[in-house]
Amino acid sequence: MNKIWRKPLDKEKVEEIRGRIYIIKDRCKGCGFCIELCPRKVLEFSEEFNAKGYHPPKAVRPDACLDCNLCEIVCPEFAIFTEPETVKGKGEEGGSSDDAC
User: Fold this and answer.
1) pLDDT of residue 23
2) N-to-C CA span, the chain
3) Does residue 41 lie within any of the structural domains?
4) pLDDT, tens only, 3-23
5) Count: domains in the chain
6) Which pTM was predicted?
7) What is the pLDDT of residues 28-53, one digit of tens each?
8) What are the counts of helices (DSSP H) followed by strands (DSSP E) for the chain?
9) Residue 87: CB partners within 8 Å, gap ≥ 6?
10) Which domain holds residue 83?
C-alpha cells in the first residue's frame, strides 16, 4: 500500500472531537457491552467491586475516546456516558485532554 503523502493545509485549525468518559459505578451490572463494542478499546474491567458486587469498567485509554457515544447507547443500565471535548490542532497551546475519565 502507498503511504498518504499529503495532509490538509488547514490541519492546525481543525478541532478534534474527543470525549470525556463518566462511569456511574454503582449502576453497572458488569455486562461488558461497553468494553466489547468500544471501537477504540478505551475501556476494560476494573479490579474493584461496586455496591452490587460487579466489576465496573474503567477507562484505560481516555485520550483515545472520540465521543462516538456507542458505550452510552449500548449500556442497559445507563451507567456510562460521555461529553464532548474539543482539542485544537496539534502544535497549539491548551490542546490536551489529559484529565479525561
Assistant:
1) 96
2) 36
3) yes
4) 777 777 887 887 888 999 999
5) 1
6) 0.71
7) 999 999 999 999 999 999 999 999 99
8) 2, 4
9) 15, 16, 17, 18, 95, 96, 97
10) 21-87
Tell me which amino acid residue 76 is.
P
Q: Which residues contact 98 (CB under 8 A, 6 or more apart)?
A: 63
Phi, psi for 31 (deg, rounded to 5): -70, -30
**Which one, of 16, 8, 33, 37, lies nearest residue 94 by Cα?**
16
User: Does 6 map to a domain?
Assistant: no
Where do the DSSP E strands lie in 1-101? 16-23, 43-45, 57-59, 80-87
**Beta pairing partners, 59:** 43
Amino acid at residue number 53: G
Asked if residue 24 has pLDDT above 90, the reply is yes
Give the cell for residue 42. Answer: 478505551
User: Which residue's entry shows cell 490541519?
Assistant: 11
